[in-house]
């Protein structure tokens, strides 16, 4: 049985953070109302030396917006690190597209969403709608109330995500400080599925893992609800071996005929409401999805005839949660009805999505210069290249090998969302940097026990990663690998450390060249926020903008980089103002390398700029001239 540490007073916020920190490598953060300070807890604990189950301090990557934080998390996961998100219910809405792609890619992450406090929980119609929408994209949705429950359910969320490689949502109510008994770090390590962890690490987006690239994407079927319920039941039993961690809790009269089903995180604020009728029981649901009708039936009194499902709003509103419960439980012989909790806020009229102009006239791309830039980039950087591709022309023009050989390295690429690709690339970078830091710590630990010649090898490898004098090739990485292989059979500290690096961090020894690629529609419009966020930092992320001077793939609508006077979609009478000078904007950040390249008129200059950007120690922006047939006749 796993022993717990002595109880310590903490809020539900802190309890959820304790659970998350243990199983997290890196976190994508944005200061969302009600949740931003949780990220500050992570940063404070990391600075104080607190370790996760991987014996490392975690890294929190700040994003430019809620949706960017979701994309950063997606990148962290694709980089082979475990990610966590703390956000508000409305912030969660902005991350839905990233959650969907994370689920499609079968990646493990947990969203912790605080839903207010004891007096004002997740009970506005707007926030209720946020949770309702989220339930449609998360394979598992958990709910908790008290601080101890927030910790236990938080741990269950991370173990489930880790075991099944899925995104999991944990909704919890913030509460006052209560004593919470948490597991020791060793206890957390015993709970973790280390086979699943090793398998996940082997899927990291690295040239040494060619099968991680988008053309070999894992398209395995997601786990069925039955499989997830089996995993949740097993893991809840591990957390509380004596009687299990109950996922559905009934409270009330043992002979009740009516029962109100309510998410657990709403229960504290509704206690007085429950007591209006002592004959009505309450089903507190810690697992909102998937539903286990047999388990729910077992915890309810045999006398129950009617199950009322909590809804927020008025009877004229469209129910969100009731249809799910009704469909699942109708076969059990219950009469399932919605029970509305009226609040002051009522739903407002929502605008439908903006109609997007589509064009079938996109067949003139055979001679597009975009392919020449992409071919040049992949030829120069080869097995060091890690690409983030924005949906659009870049994705359609990129050609990667359709086969791979185990044990070899080749360029790899991942597809992000239209708005989130720069943030996704930042997440990948954070993950790779975090993993390389693990090698640095191991080398620093064994360095005093090495010979002077081997110490020199280590020092040169470390210097390559700390200054700007980097080469396209990586001779220092080759030398370090030879040195590590030489000591693999030794006993003691040096041998143990070299074997650990060989088994767990080998693919991170060589430098990687990280690039994000998209068109001018992305760079000047939909993705500019995260693009500028990267340029304002000092991270080694390279950006290649394929400047078509229009939204090329959707028929030639004009972008912010379209020149003045050009006619096309959005500006049928001609654009009235000059093109955005993206290079001039980049020059406001002194640490950024910038260049405009023209592969058709100056191929040597284009190659030189790519090599210089790859070797530059900091962010780089290349703006490539890509004349587009869809823009010629606009």
Structural class: alpha/beta
Q: Compute the number of strand runs.
A: 20
| Poorly predicted segments | 117-123, 343-364
**What count of helical segments does DSSP give?**
24
Shape: globular
Biggest sheet strand order reads 3-2-4-5-7-6-12
Radius of gyration: 27 Å
Helix content: 25-40%
- Integer average pLDDT: 82
**Distance between the terminal alpha carbons, to the nearest Å?**
71 Å
Task: Please characterize this protein's 3D structure.
By secondary structure, this protein is α/β, with parallel strands linked by helices. It has 24 helices and 20 strands. The strands form four sheets. A seven-stranded mixed β-sheet has the order 3-2-4-5-7-6-12, sandwiched between helices. Helix 11 links the parallel strand 10 and strand 11. The longest helix has 26 residues. The protein starts with 7 loop residues before the first strand and ends with a helix.
What secondary-structure arrangement, pairings included, does this model have?
Blueprint lengths: L7 E3 L1 H11 L3 E4 L6 H12 L11 E4 L3 H13 L4 E4 L2 H6 L1 H9 L4 E6 L10 H10 L5 E5 L2 H18 L2 E6 L5 E3 L4 H7 L2 H8 L23 H15 L8 E4 L6 E6 L7 H4 L5 E6 L1 E3 L3 H7 L6 E7 L9 H8 L5 E7 L28 H12 L3 E5 L3 H5 L14 E4 L5 H26 L5 H13 L10 H12 L6 H12 L8 E7 H7 L1 H8 L6 E6 L34 H6 L5 E5 L5 H13 L4 E6 L3 H4 L2
Parallel strand pairs: 2-3, 2-4, 4-5, 5-7, 6-7, 10-11, 10-13, 13-14, 15-16, 15-17, 17-18, 18-20, 19-20
Antiparallel strand pairs: 1-8, 6-12, 9-11
Helix pairs in contact: 1-7, 3-5, 3-16, 7-10, 14-23, 16-19, 16-21, 17-18
């Amino acid at each position: 049985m796993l022993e717990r540490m002595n109880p310590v007073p903490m809020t539900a916020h802190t309890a959820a953070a304790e659970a998350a920190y243990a199983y997290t490598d890196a976190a994508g953060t944005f200061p969302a109302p009600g949740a931003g300070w949780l990220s500050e807890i992570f940063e404070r604990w990391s600075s104080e030396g607190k370790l996760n189950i991987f014996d490392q301090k975690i890294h929190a990557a700040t994003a430019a917006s809620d949706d960017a934080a979701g994309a950063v998390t997606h990148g962290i996961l694709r980089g082979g690190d475990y990610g966590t998100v703390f956000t508000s219910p409305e912030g969660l809405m902005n991350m839905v597209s990233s959650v969907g792609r994370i689920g499609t890619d079968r990646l493990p992450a947990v969203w912790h969403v605080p839903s207010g406090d004891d007096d004002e929980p997740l009970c506005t119609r707007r926030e209720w709608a946020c949770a309702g929408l989220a339930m449609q994209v998360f394979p598992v949705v958990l709910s908790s109330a008290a601080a101890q429950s927030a910790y236990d359910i938080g741990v269950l969320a991370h173990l489930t995500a880790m075991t099944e490689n899925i995104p999991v949502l944990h909704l919890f109510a913030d509460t006052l400080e209560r004593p919470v008994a948490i597991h020791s770090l060793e206890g957390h390590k015993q709970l973790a599925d280390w086979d699943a962890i090793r398998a996940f690490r082997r899927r990291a987006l690295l040239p040494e893992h060619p099968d991680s690239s988008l053309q070999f994407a894992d398209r395995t079927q997601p786990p069925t609800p039955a499989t997830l319920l089996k995993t949740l039941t097993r893991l809840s039993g591990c957390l509380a071996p004596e009687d299990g961690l109950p996922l559905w809790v009934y409270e009330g009269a043992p002979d009740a005929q009516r029962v109100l089903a309510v998410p657990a995180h709403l229960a504290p604020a509704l206690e007085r409401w429950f007591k209006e009728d002592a004959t009505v029981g309450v089903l507190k649901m810690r697992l909102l999805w998937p539903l286990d009708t047999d388990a729910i039936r077992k915890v309810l009194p045999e006398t129950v005839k009617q199950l009322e499902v909590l809804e927020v709003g008025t009877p004229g509103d469209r129910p969100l949660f009731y249809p799910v419960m009704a469909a699942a439980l109708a076969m059990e012989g219950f009469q399932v009805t919605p029970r509305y909790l009226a609040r002051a806020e009522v739903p407002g009229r929502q605008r439908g999505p903006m109609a997007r102009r589509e064009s079938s006239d996109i067949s003139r791309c055979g001679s597009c210069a975009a392919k020449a830039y992409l071919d040049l980039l992949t030829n120069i950087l080869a097995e060091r290249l890690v690409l983030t591709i924005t949906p659009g022309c870049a994705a359609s023009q990129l050609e990667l090998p359709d086969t791979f050989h185990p044990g070899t390295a080749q360029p790899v690429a991942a597809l992000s969302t239209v708005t989130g690709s720069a943030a996704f690339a930042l997440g990948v970078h954070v993950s790779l940097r975090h993993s390389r830091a693990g090698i640095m710590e191991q080398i620093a630990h064994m360095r005093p026990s090495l010979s002077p010649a081997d110490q020199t090898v280590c020092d040169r490898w470390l210097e390559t990663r700390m200054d700007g004098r980097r080469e396209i090739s990586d001779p220092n990485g080759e030398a370090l690998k030879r040195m590590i292989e030489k000591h693999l059979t030794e006993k003691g500290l040096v041998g143990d450390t070299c074997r650990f690096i060989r088994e767990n961090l080998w693919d991170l020894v060589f430098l990687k060249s990280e690039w994000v690629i998209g068109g001018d529609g992305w760079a000047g419009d939909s993705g500019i926020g995260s693009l500028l966020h990267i340029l304002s930092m000092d991270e080694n992320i390279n950006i290649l903008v394929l400047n078509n001077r229009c939204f090329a793939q959707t028929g030639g609508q004009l972008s912010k980089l379209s020149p003045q006077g050009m006619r096309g979609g959005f500006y049928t009478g001609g654009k009235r103002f000059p093109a955005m000078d993206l290079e001039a904007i980049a020059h406001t950040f002194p640490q950024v390398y910038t260049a405009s390249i023209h592969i058709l008129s100056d191929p040597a200059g284009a190659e030189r700029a790519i090599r210089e950007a790859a070797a530059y120690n900091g962010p780089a922006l290349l703006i490539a001239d890509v004349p587009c047939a869809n823009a010629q006749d606009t």
